[in-house]
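> call design_seq(struct)
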């Protein structure tokens, strides 16, 4: 079974298994259509975050007359038309790889080339370990897509793990970090915990839960309401900061013991797949809180 390095194209390996009926629902919002603003970028207050329906669309359910004040309704996400079949499929996303090929909606990522320390570039480290993880998963019969910065819209798989390495700029912090986004399926916690447990045991690194950033929790790969180039809300996904590139011991682990790091990630993914059948992941529609609908942000007057 070959490892697939995915560029800016849809991933094959899925067939149509369910008819689409959501479009006849009066609350149906087609893919890419606006759902309302959801706030602003903390790093750029002038940039509003506008929610949009993912590939396949969603059904916006508004609160009924008996709802409490301030209720914002829910989003019902229909089951995907193309549910994966055949071998279990896993996407390993390489942080900062091929950012120069990002589409317009990800323009801000073009200049984000990753950390660099003592001549080691994060993107090279991420790609090396991703390829090692892919070989290990392949040997267990898992189909693997090695994904660049640009994710195929609505990417479907049994799991996705995004690989990064951090830097604190001074070389003091050590450890690994993990996060997943909100408003997604119910299996992210299980994937995170399985990878976290295996990674800590194999690498000996401490878990750095105090430096998990909003950027990790809102990682674009999982933010289907903000970006079309994101994984399906049904695809369980987590981001893993494998260690601090700026820390001598962390860096040595990720470079000199890359096989140990890759084996730990692979073991965590395999545990998740073993405990979470595909039939569960794609068993039923998702219902998540809707975002409040607001008007445009006020503009200054001359």
């Amino acid at each position: 079974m070959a490892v697939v390095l995915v560029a800016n194209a849809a991933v094959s390996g899925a067939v149509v298994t369910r008819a689409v009926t959501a479009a006849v629902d009066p609350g149906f919002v087609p893919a890419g259509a606006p759902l309302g603003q959801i706030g602003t970028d903390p790093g750029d207050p002038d940039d509003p975050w506008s929610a949009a329906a993912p590939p396949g669309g969603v059904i916006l359910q508004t609160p009924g007359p008996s709802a409490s004040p301030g209720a914002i309704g829910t989003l019902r996400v229909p089951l995907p038309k193309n549910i994966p079949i055949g071998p279990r499929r896993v996407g390993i996303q390489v942080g900062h790889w091929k950012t120069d090929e990002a589409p317009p909606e990800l323009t801000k990522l073009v200049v984000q080339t990753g950390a660099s320390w003592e001549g080691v570039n994060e993107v090279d480290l991420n790609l090396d370990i991703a390829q090692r993880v892919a070989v290990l998963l392949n040997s267990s019969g898992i189909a693997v897509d090695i994904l660049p910065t640009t994710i195929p819209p609505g990417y479907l798989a049994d799991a996705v793990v995004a690989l990064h390495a951090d830097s604190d700029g001074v070389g003091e912090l050590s450890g690994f970090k993990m996060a997943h986004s909100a408003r997604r399926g119910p299996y992210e916690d299980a994937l995170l915990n399985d990878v976290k447990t295996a990674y800590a045991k194999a690498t000996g690194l401490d878990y750095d839960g105090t430096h998990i950033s909003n950027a990790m929790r809102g990682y674009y790969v999982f933010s289907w309401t903000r970006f079309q180039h994101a994984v399906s809300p049904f695809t369980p996904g987590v981001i893993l900061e494998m260690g601090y590139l700026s820390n001598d011991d962390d860096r040595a682990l990720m470079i000199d013991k890359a096989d140990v790091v890759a084996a730990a990630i692979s073991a965590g993914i395999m545990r998740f797949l073993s405990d979470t059948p595909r039939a569960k992941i794609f068993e039923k529609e998702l219902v998540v809180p809707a975002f409040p609908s607001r008007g445009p942000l006020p503009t200054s007057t001359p």
